[in-house]
Amino acid sequence: MVFTTGKKLLAAVLVSAGMLAGAQAADYARHPLALELMAEMRDEFGFTEERLQQVFALAHKQQGILDAISRPAERVKPWKEYRPIFLTRQRIDKGLQFWAENEEALARAEKEYGVPAEFIVAIIGVETFYGGNTGRYSVLDALSTLAFDYPPRAPFFRGQLKQFLLLTREEQLEPASLKGSYAGAMGLPQFMPGSFRAYAVDFNGDGRINIWTDAEDAIGSVANYFIEHGWQPGQKVAVPATLKNEQAEQGLTGGLDPKHSMKELKALGWQAQQKVAGKTRVTAFRFDGESGVEYWLGLPNFQAITRYNRSEMYAMAVTQLAETLASEFKETR
């Protein structure tokens, strides 16, 4: 009697374990929302049913991705705490090494696009530590999970999933083989699939676009991204400012899109520490720096950097890392 009960218990345990494993291994091949997307990919872009089933049979819901994107935002750090994260000796030294190893490609990108080498290096340094941390998640899993099981931003990620399927077909890549961030950002420059298809370039001329392991393609792609988002070759990025009176703070932008021209800000009491044309539309902002309050004017090139990440502190970190890299790289020449 005990033996029979034991066998039944063992069988129940095995069945439960099998069900759990099956739940963990469940793919998106038969998910209703995935089936809708597959129909669109067939009708709009000529994908075959067989190919789509093959792809989504390899796409799995990842709770870790949902946990990551749903995690409460960290306390917004003041500039005096945010800046040291990116202006470290290690990041600077690694950036100088990356620049030296890719000097020819960076010089060519600067010549062809008008984007200084130091800003290309800085973006890659801030995004992935020069390729050292490009993400550990399956891009297919990330985009599928967020497209089908994360309602707050499902439309955005659904669109990015479609772009991803298109780019993997165009570049002849296996969707399940690519790694990236939990949000599906890819490669050394962390491009989302839509940005990849719009701005990534074959900068080494080998007939493929590889931003995952090819530094040349990543370099050219970052430069192209900047120029397509309004980078103005030969122009400044940001300049410090002083205020003549407290009322001048009325000129603070309160966002990333410029509201005033330099002429208008000057009338409010802003004084740029470097020459800025009166007609230039600028982003006026204030930081809590190590030595006190800092006032800055972001010019069109600063605004181009914020198209990469919608944050004034991000853009300033990239700018100051770039300036440091440029200064130290010249010393090695």
UniProtKB/TrEMBL annotation:
It holds the Pfam family SLT_2. The keyword Signal applies. GO terms for biological process: peptidoglycan catabolic process. Residues 1-25 form the signal peptide. Residues 39-323 form the Transglycosylase SLT domain. One of its GO terms (molecular function) is peptidoglycan lytic transglycosylase activity. InterPro entries: Lysozyme-like_dom_sf (IPR023346), Lytic_transglycosylase_MltB (IPR011757), MltB-like (IPR043426), SLT_2 (IPR031304). The active site is at E127. CDD domains: Slt35-like. PANTHER family: MEMBRANE-BOUND LYTIC MUREIN TRANSGLYCOSYLASE B. This is Membrane-bound lytic murein transglycosylase B. It comes from Thiopseudomonas denitrificans.
